[in-house]
Amino acid sequence: MWAALLLPVLVLADSLALQPPATGCQTSCGGVDVPFPFGIGPGCFLPGFQIECINGSTPMLPDDSYEIKVLNLSVMPRPEARVMLHIAFQCYDATDGSAKDGASFRSAVIKSAYRISDTRNELVVLGCTTFGFTSSGPWGRRDSSFASGCLAYCDNDGSAMDGSCVGIGCCRVEIPPGLTDNTVFFLNDSASTWSHQGLGFSPCDYGFMVEKNTYDFRVSDLNMDGSSTTKPLVLDWAIRSSNVSSSVDNMTCTEVKGTPEYACLSDNSQCLNSTNGPGYICNCTQGYWGNPYLIGGCK
Ligand SMILES: *[C@@H]1O[C@H](CO)[C@@H](O)[C@H](O)[C@H]1NC(C)=O
Ligand SMILES: *[C@@H]1O[C@H](CO)[C@@H](O)[C@H](O)[C@H]1NC(C)=O
Ligand SMILES: *[C@@H]1O[C@H](CO)[C@@H](O)[C@H](O)[C@H]1NC(C)=O
Ligand SMILES: *[C@@H]1O[C@H](CO)[C@@H](O)[C@H](O)[C@H]1NC(C)=O
Ligand SMILES: *[C@@H]1O[C@H](CO)[C@@H](O)[C@H](O)[C@H]1NC(C)=O
Ligand SMILES: *[C@@H]1O[C@H](CO)[C@@H](O)[C@H](O)[C@H]1NC(C)=O
Ligand SMILES: *[C@@H]1O[C@H](CO)[C@@H](O)[C@H](O)[C@H]1NC(C)=O
Q1: CA 26 to centroid of ligand 4, rounded, Å
Q2: Cis status, amide bond into 37, omega within 30 of 0
Q3: How many Å apart are CA 66 and CA 85, to the nearest integer?
Q4: 58 in contact with ligand 2, CB cutoff 6 A
Q5: Within 13 Å and on the Cβ side, how many CA atoms surround 105?
Q6: Which residues constitute the signal peptide according to the record (predicted)?
Q7: Which of 61, 165, 194, 275 could staple 68 via S-S, CB 3.0–4.6 A?
Q8: Per-residue model confidence (pLDDT) at position 38
Q9: Does the CB atom of residue 55 touch ligand 2 within 6 A?
Q10: What is the pTM of this model?
């Protein structure tokens, strides 16, 4: 299997106490609202929630290695960020079956505040002799504690059909909670099982997590340019640590309430433990709506 061992360095600021945003912070970028704890520029975001406004019009998550474009950020009713992420792919020479270009993506940004939403996304795998899977989480029986994947197969050039993702050229599967990266691995071996020799009509493996009900399989996607393709997906976010450089994610509601780090600053707000990964989120109590991370935010 092919894995990019890139370890992008987080460039986000360390900070001790959580603070409300400075005044005069930019509150949108390119038509996308940027509600606190997200923010643009120094003093405007909580640690881990920086947004970059590239060229004054394209909101991005800061990541040294990949461009992660932001489509939408929301605080209520659910803490979510919709982003565009690159797909993973692996292409082969159909004549001799040798591997050509490919990439299996991994983003460092997701590790801190974000997790890939297991309820809002699915894993899609495209190919004609392709087993694609995602794996993540802390060290388990193997090097991760979750794995989920599916097999896409086609007997011949004409067997895959537009709109049909049922295992012929395209398969889809639910993903587990807690996923911290969007890497998709593909099985390959020197024996014939996963060989792409003779598969001129489908020379590549593709895999991506994508927002449910947004991807419609096209046979022509079996020949798409993997390096330039991105797909929309939903990230859950939570306040996990006041120090994004630290690997300690130990903030739960009980531990953080009453400390200077407590981020639920509004009256009529409540603390909820995160349901996807460690940490906590704030919400307005029933009957109130707004931004629980701001003083007076829940109205
Ligand atoms: C199979 O994957 C390994 C990495 O795990 C890679 O070095 C090798 O080139 C791949 N072989 C083929 C035929 O794709
Ligand atoms: C920002 O502008 C530069 C120069 O015009 C351009 O090359 C680049 O692609 C732009 N970046 C984004 C994310 O729009
Ligand atoms: C962003 O998300 C909010 C809350 O889910 C929704 O009301 C809004 O329509 C979304 N905006 C876009 C551009 O998707
Ligand atoms: C954040 O964590 C890193 C790594 O554990 C540590 O070196 C650094 O001193 C911490 N920063 C603060 C402000 O606590
Ligand atoms: C989290 O763990 C760090 C290091 O073990 C500790 O210093 C800190 O007090 C803990 N924070 C909470 C909120 O429990
Ligand atoms: C949050 O999690 C902690 C630790 O697991 C638990 O003690 C606490 O009751 C939970 N709080 C809420 C509001 O669910
Ligand atoms: C936050 O509160 C709103 C309004 O009461 C509710 O609809 C929503 O489900 C709550 N969000 C979470 C994550 O519990």
Answers
A1: 28
A2: yes
A3: 8
A4: yes
A5: 27
A6: 1-17
A7: 61
A8: 96
A9: yes
A10: 0.85
Class of domain 249-299: mainly beta
- pLDDT tens digit string along 68-81? 999 999 999 999 99
Cis ω before 8 (30° cut-off from 0): no
Q: How many CA atoms lie within 13 A of 127 on its CB side?
A: 31
In Å, the largest CA–CA distance within the chain is 66
Which amino acid residue places its CA nearest to atom 3 of ligand 1? 1
Location of each CATH 2.10.25 domain in the chain: 249-299
Does the Cβ of 130 fall within 6 Å of ligand 1? Answer: no
Question: Which pair of tokens denotes residue 80?
Answer: 């979510």
Going from the Cα of 269 to the center of ligand 5, the distance in angstroms, rounded, reads 23
Query: For the segment 183-198, what is each residue's pLDDT rounded down to a tens digit?
Result: 898 988 766 788 888 8
Residues of the chain below pLDDT 70: 1-20, 64, 106-109, 111, 137-145, 190-191, 242-249
CB atoms closer than 10 angstroms to residue 215: 18
**Ligand 7 pocket, 286 CB below 6 A?**
yes
In DSSP terms, which residues pair with 86 in a beta bridge?
A: 230
pLDDT the model gives residue 192: 73
Pairing of strands 129-136, 114-116: unpaired
Closest C-alpha residue for ligand 6 atom 2 = 252
pLDDT of residue 176: 87
**132 φ/ψ angles, rounded to the nearest 5 degrees:** -115, 140
